[in-house]
Write a structure and sequence with these properties.
By secondary structure, this protein is mostly helical. It is built from three helices and no strands.
Length: 65
């Protein structure tokens, strides 16, 4: 187990927000995704850096799902 790993539910929310924003024709960058997660009441919101660069594939990278 990775102690500081982003919870799976939050990873799923990031992927969903990225897809929804793109489908709506909106920016789906880390700032927009963080704003969307905060508006949905998801806490803690991952850092914009974590959203933009989710880490190596073995660490549960959520940008590529």
């Amino acid at each position: 187990m990775i102690v500081n790993a982003t919870p799976g539910e939050v990873e799923d929310a990031v992927v969903r927000a990225r897809r929804e924003l793109a489908n709506d024709g909106d920016s789906n960058g880390p700032f927009s995704i963080a704003d969307r997660l905060a508006a949905q009441g998801i806490t803690p919101v991952p850092s914009r850096a974590a959203i933009a660069h989710p880490g190596p594939p073995w660490a549960g990278a959520f940008a590529t799902r």
